[in-house]
């Protein structure tokens, strides 16, 4: 039973040691912290993390490979290194002091509807109290200096994600166009769809709140909390 869901983005700058003296991601990190505090306050038996990656699969755990993202620190063996989405999730959970069980899974950026639905069903049908942490970014084409340069279609697409998150509309997340999402470099499309499928299958009433929705680096970041009754 899913008792709550949180959406956070996964830019490397959420790893504090990558931001330098001026913490340019302080506001975003604060919103993520508040969201995860709300999730852990629901006393989940386990937190299930879903994040995008090149391939889908379960992860038994691992380390955050800060050096791979331009920082310093101890090297991490490739087989132990978490992908960016899961690495940021692990760091955020550590930040709020969550010490309970954590299970992690990646979903391929281009995962099919059948694949996201299957993962959503697997999460929704678990016994016990499940907290779901979904790691995903919006479009990376929201400005001339954005990673994907400017594409005006990004604004409408991201607004649909924001509206769905704000209204607790899982079906809206499921309807996101995978082809357009790929063109707009929406890294969270598949993970958002898993969330929509999982919550819809659970049939719970959702109370939703968006804590952050902005594009400080030309990439749209969302932080949202869904409490499921």
Question: How would you portray this structure in words?
Answer:
The structure is a single chain. The protein has 229 residues and is an alpha/beta fold. It has a single domain (2-228), classed as Protocatechuate 4,5-dioxygenase, Chain B, CATH 3.40.830. Helices cover 34% and strands 21% of the residues. It has helices at 26-40, 84-95, 113-124, 153-167, 170-174, 178-183, 189-202; strands at residues 2-8, 46-53, 57-59, 102-108, 130-135, 206-214, 221-228. It has a seven-stranded mixed sheet, sandwiched between helices. The radius of gyration is 16 Å and the shape is globular.
Q: Helices, strands, pairings?
A:
Blueprint: E1 2-8, H1 26-40, E2 46-53, E3 57-59, H2 84-95, E4 102-108, H3 113-124, E5 130-135, H4 153-167, H5 170-174, H6 178-183, H7 189-202, E6 206-214, E7 221-228
Parallel strand pairs: 1-5, 2-4, 2-5
Antiparallel strand pairs: 1-7, 3-4, 6-7
Helix pairs in contact: 3-7
Give a nutshell description of this structure.
This protein is of the alpha/beta class and 229 residues long. The protein has 7 helices and 7 strands, in the order βαββαβαβααααββ. The termini are close together.
């Amino acid at each position: 039973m899913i008792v709550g869901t949180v959406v956070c983005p996964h830019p490397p700058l959420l790893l504090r040691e990558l931001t330098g003296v001026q913490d340019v991601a302080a506001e975003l990190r604060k919103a993520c912290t508040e969201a995860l505090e709300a999730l852990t306050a629901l006393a989940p038996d386990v937190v299930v993390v879903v994040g995008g990656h090149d391939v889908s699969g379960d992860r038994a755990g691992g380390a955050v490979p800060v050096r791979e993202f331009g920082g310093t620190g101890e090297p991490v063996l490739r087989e132990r290194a978490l992908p960016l989405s899961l690495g940021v999730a692990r760091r955020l959970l550590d930040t709020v002091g969550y010490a309970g069980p954590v299970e992690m899974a990646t979903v391929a950026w281009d995962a099919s509807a059948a694949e996201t639905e299957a993962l959503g069903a697997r999460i929704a049908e678990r016994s016990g109290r499940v907290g779901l942490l979904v790691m995903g970014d919006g479009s990376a084409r929201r400005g001339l200096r954005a990673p994907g340069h400017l594409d005006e279609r990004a604004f409408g697409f991201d607004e649909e994600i924001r509206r769905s998150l704000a209204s607790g509309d899982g079906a809206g997340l499921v309807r996101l166009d995978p082809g357009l999402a790929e063109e707009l470099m929406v890294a969270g499309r598949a993970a958002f769809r898993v969330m929509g499928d999982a919550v819809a299958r659970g049939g719970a009433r959702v109370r939703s709140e968006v804590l952050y929705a902005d594009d400080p680096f030309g990439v749209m970041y969302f932080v949202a909390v869904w409490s499921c009754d």
